[in-house]
């Protein structure tokens, strides 16, 4: 069939569709990957701007999307019928309901054709999700039930992320939270296969500056999918060279990043590595839908934490009170039984506070307490610090890295060493093997009392019984 006959044949097909429709001509490279994808013909509704689109590469109008390329290949050469409903609000300002239907390829087999039909909706249409496969629907429903179980958010997320790793046949899966205001990030939970410990370390060591680059990788798409190692050089290296080096070092071959959004702001990511690339479309669809529910639960958890903070703050020092500490200890000790993770604890007591009160009055003592709370909150995160007794404070650092923890303790000693103001007796313990929180607290408390005796040996005039 000559090009004119092909054009006329497919033009009539496109014009018979009431929704925006185009026939895409897909070329195949020698390595069976997608080559150029051109808009062969289109009906009047297909162009959103009214400009001519026929004969142009689709990338002239939209950012290149590797997953879309793959879907076109599977439809044009594999004969698959594909339906997706995706969040394209970044690029199109709307949700996109897409259908790809296979058409007869060229006689030489070098060019394939598929019919592309789309519909846009300004708001998400929950009813569209009813068309997803039973496999995806069943997994999403199961995960949602686990997210709403009676355990706390992190325990629930650990179960869900472990299920995700198994479902995707991946070596690593994790959820990472971001706090742009504080330029901080946190690996909330992770699941690693036994042979993939190095990969787990790669993602545990991620810093905020690396994670911040992920938004550039995703761009106007709804997620980022790396299907093979070539994408490290071609896509990741130009944007995040430091992370590209980490991925190469640990032999990461495939990767999926799905943003967690709250009111269009990215607050975290679901990350899956070394998954089954043959199921990448199903995995992408599953994680995109699941991210909506994970984002919602994360927002709810953050709201409850803020509410807890407001109702459990020590008004004198601005840190959390003893009641909050007891609850955190109970919950975190239970989590560590389920899955061990590194943590650090600190006990510190203000030396010479009674002598300060006697010499300068209680106002001076109260100001010293306020100063102590400020120092602790500036050295550690405010959610980690507690006033455990009158002049005593505790710090519990979950998922702490030993080097960072040691540096913070050193900084605390430097800032809390004024014998006429705030001078801390400090004890601390770091655990990355046992997972026994209460034992670590006892060790830190014992060390603090010993440090306190050293102070009063050096400054006996400040001791009061």
Key features?
3 domains; alpha+beta; 5-stranded antiparallel sheet; Beta-Lactamase; 465 residues; 16 helices; single chain; 14 strands; Alpha-Beta Plaits; 23% strand
Give the spatial strand order of the biggest sheet. 2-1-5-4-3
Shape: elongated
Query: How many beta strands in the DSSP annotation?
Result: 14
Strand percentage, roughly? 15-25%
Secondary-structure element series: HEEHEHEEHHEEHHHEHHEEHHEHHEEHEH
CATH overall fold name of the largest domain: Beta-Lactamase
Largest sheet: 5 strands, antiparallel
Question: Which residue ranges are poorly predicted, with pLDDT under 50 across at least 5 consecutive positions?
Answer: none
What's the gyration radius in Å? 29 Å
Helix fraction by DSSP (H/I, runs of at least 4): 40-55%
**What's the helix count?**
16
Mean pLDDT: 86
* Name given to the CATH homologous superfamily of the largest domain: GAF domain
Structural class: alpha+beta
**CATH structural architecture of the largest domain:** 2-Layer Sandwich
What separation lies between the terminal Cα atoms?
102 Å
């Amino acid at each position: 069939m000559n090009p004119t006959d092909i054009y006329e044949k497919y033009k009539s097909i496109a014009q018979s569709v009431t929704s925006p429709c185009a026939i895409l001509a897909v070329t195949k490279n020698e390595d069976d990957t997608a080559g150029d994808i051109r808009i062969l013909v289109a009906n009047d509704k297909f162009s959103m701007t009214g400009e001519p689109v026929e004969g142009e590469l689709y990338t002239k109008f939209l950012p290149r999307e590797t997953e879309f390329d793959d879907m076109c290949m599977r439809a044009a050469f594999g004969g698959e019928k594909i339906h997706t409903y995706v969040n394209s609000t970044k690029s199109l300002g709307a949700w996109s309901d897409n259908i790809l239907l296979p058409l007869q390829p060229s006689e030489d087999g070098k060019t394939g054709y598929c019919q592309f039909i789309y519909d846009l909706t300004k708001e998400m249409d929950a009813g569209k999700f009813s068309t997803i496969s039973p496999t995806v629907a069943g997994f999403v429903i199961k995960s949602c039930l686990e997210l709403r179980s009676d355990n706390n958010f992190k325990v629930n997320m650990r179960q869900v992320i472990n299920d995700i790793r198994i479902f995707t046949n991946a070596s690593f899966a994790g959820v990472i939270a971001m706090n742009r205001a504080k330029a901080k990030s946190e690996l909330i939970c992770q699941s690693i296969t036994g042979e993939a410990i190095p990969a787990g370390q790669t993602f545990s060591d991620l810093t905020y500056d690396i994670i911040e680059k992920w938004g550039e990788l995703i761009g106007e798409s709804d997620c980022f999918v790396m299907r093979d190692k070539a994408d490290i050089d071609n896509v990741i290296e130009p944007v995040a060279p430091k992370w590209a080096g980490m991925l190469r070092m640990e032999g990461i071959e495939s990767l999926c990043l799905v943003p967690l959004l709250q009111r269009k702001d990215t607050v975290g990511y679901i990350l899956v590595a070394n998954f089954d690339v043959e199921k990448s479309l199903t995995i992408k669809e599953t994680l995109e839908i699941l991210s909506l529910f994970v984002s919602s639960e994360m927002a709810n958890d953050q709201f409850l934490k803020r509410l807890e903070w407001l109702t459990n703050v020590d008004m004198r020092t601005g840190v959390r009170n003893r009641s909050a500490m007891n609850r955190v200890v109970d919950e975190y000790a239970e989590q560590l039984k389920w899955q061990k993770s590194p943590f650090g604890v600190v006990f510190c007591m203000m030396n010479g506070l009674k002598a300060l009160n006697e010499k300068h009055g209680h106002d001076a003592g109260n100001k010293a307490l306020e100063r102590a709370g400020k120092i602790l909150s500036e050295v550690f995160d405010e959610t980690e610090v507690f006033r455990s007794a009158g002049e005593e404070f505790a710090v519990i650092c979950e998922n702490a890295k030993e080097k960072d923890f040691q540096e913070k303790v050193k900084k605390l000693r430097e800032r809390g060493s004024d014998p006429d103001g705030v001078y801390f007796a400090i004890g601390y313990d770091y655990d990355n093997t046992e997972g026994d929180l209460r034992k670590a607290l006892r060790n830190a408390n014992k060390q603090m009392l010993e440090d306190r005796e050293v102070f009063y040996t050096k400054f006996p005039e400040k001791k009061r019984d």
